[in-house]
Specification:
With about 60 residues, this protein is an all-alpha fold. The chain is built from 4 helices and no strands. The protein is globular. The N and C termini lie far apart (about 25 Å). Pfam families: HTH_3.
Length: about 60
């Protein structure tokens, strides 16, 4: 989306440090934080986690 870390941080009311920690895998976001970030990026949590949990794109995510 072309957002800077500062732009995303402002949209989701999380610090740039926290967002950076999520990106680098140094910190795990809560489910609420994942949802807020996904909405700010106009996507869903499944898309955010696609590289982390490689479920089939056509299948439902585990638990759905």
């Amino acid at each position: 989306m072309g957002l800077s870390l500062a732009d995303l941080s402002a949209r989701v009311d999380l610090s740039p440090f926290t967002i950076n920690s999520y990106e680098r895998g140094r910190r795990l976001p809560s489910l609420e934080a994942l949802d807020v970030v996904a909405r700010a990026l106009d996507t869903d949590v499944r898309e955010l986690l696609a590289g982390v949990f490689p479920w089939d794109g056509g299948a439902e995510a585990p638990g759905n």
